[in-house]
Amino acid sequence: MDSLTFLEQPGGELRPVYVVHGDEEFLKRQVLAALRVRVLGGGDDAFGLSTHAGDKAAWRDVHSELQTLPFLSPRRLVVVENAEPFISAHRLQLEKYLTSPASSGILVLEVKNWAANTKLYKLLDAPAAIACKALTGARLADWCRQWASGQHKKQLLVAAAQLLVDLVGADMGLLAQEIAKLAVYVGEAARIGPEEVDKLVGNNRAENTFKIFDSIGKGDPAGALTLLDRLFGQGEEPIRLLGAFGWQLRRLAQAARLNARGTPLASAVEQVGFPSFKLRECEQLMRHLGRRRLDCLYDWLLEADLGLKGASQLPPRTILERLIVRLALPNPGATRSAAR
Predict the structure, then answer these.
(1) What is the pTM of this model?
(2) Which residues contact 128 (CB under 8 A, 6 or more apart)?
């Protein structure tokens, strides 16, 4: 079962054994917190919860706790963290336990990987294997909006959610922290827009990158690189700068696609969410880039992102500088090819 599906369910039948697996630690914490409430209720769980380290836990101790009713709780919740060593050492006991579990306890095994080719996997009820996988792309931005609404009663606008993901990255724990800060920052306001995200989370990165794009739109590589150097001098991290670049450039690519389908350039730029006072700069930038480079933006951003994450031997600064030069070099045919 997907972790988000599990968390959205109000309750349901409890299983004697759960396996919480995957690479997203934030989702694991959310699932374990939900299990504590469902098993032990909302009160003090000191008498009903026990936690063991997977490399030190002994089956004798875990099994004994599962068979013993706790004081002041209807059942006991026993969690084995990083349980791979525990599973390897006690696989036969776990297989036997799954065929005849205790009614007084719930066992939770927390692991990174959950192999589908084992007898233990086949014995476990499918809904009891809860996958906590990192979200990506539009699904991650959608989750940010749902989290802002559900946890803070704030409407995180679509463009703001995408900018937040671009600036912070895919770590859901960090995203949740930034959303909490944004909720406090906007106060009584019901909405969180990209302007608030840029000011609080991005330290005006989006606005600063727009200054670089002004130089790019004028075909001025030297000016764009000078502004980039200034941002590096202020301590900006390459991956966060690329996030701000990506947020802007992906919207330009979307506008180019609308324009290619017949939408007037000004209308296309406005439809993808650029503020009205930026329309002129966006049109100039799109005309400068031209159709060929606009069509390459997604690929170039992906190449830069992978390069910053280790796929390239080039220094991070060089990767960003190369992207800027690609965009800023003059393109004699851009005006004719980019606009209708």
Answers:
(1) 0.68
(2) 1, 15, 17, 18, 19
